[in-house]
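Encode chain A's predicted structure.
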Amino acid sequence: LTVTMNPPIPGLTITPVDSTDATITGTITAAGVYPVTVTATDLNGATGSAAFTWTAGNTITVAAPATEKSTVGAAIQAVTLSAADTTPGTYTYTYTVQGLPAGLTFNPSTRAITGTPTGKAKAYNTTISVSDGTITGTAAIAWTVYNKIKVTAKAPSKVYLRVKVSVRPTATDSDPSQKLTWSVSPADPLPPGLSI
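Encoded structure for chain A:
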């Protein structure tokens, strides 16, 4: 048994499996409408055919970072989105962005997400949809917003050996419900004899 596909579809092949079956496999590489006739031929030259139409549409790939990390009260660096169609051409894309942290906005003209997070510190699932009027591509950003902690410490510029030192640092959290813990960076330890 031999099998043929006419006309060939870019990226697909047809292969006999056994004396009665065949498979069409691959990845279509060009969008279009493909009227196809599949023909099987036996050793005596007898043939049988089946016809069908295959419609292959474009796909849109949306370019966006997989993750973003921001802090309440701190302006973010602009995140610019883009999209590309698998079929070359001139397309007008419509962007829809949902699930942004409070304080952030999307500008369709510049395709940029900007602003300063003002809402609650938590994880946000930001979704992006881009349409060319016919098909839609999607992407998602796992956006984490952290609390803003401000630490103030007034310490004397000079201290003396064997003289007691007392410094009281204070801290405020953008989320008052959080309980703060204190530590000293191993890279910048306190002088010997002092602790926090």
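The radius of gyration is 31 Å.
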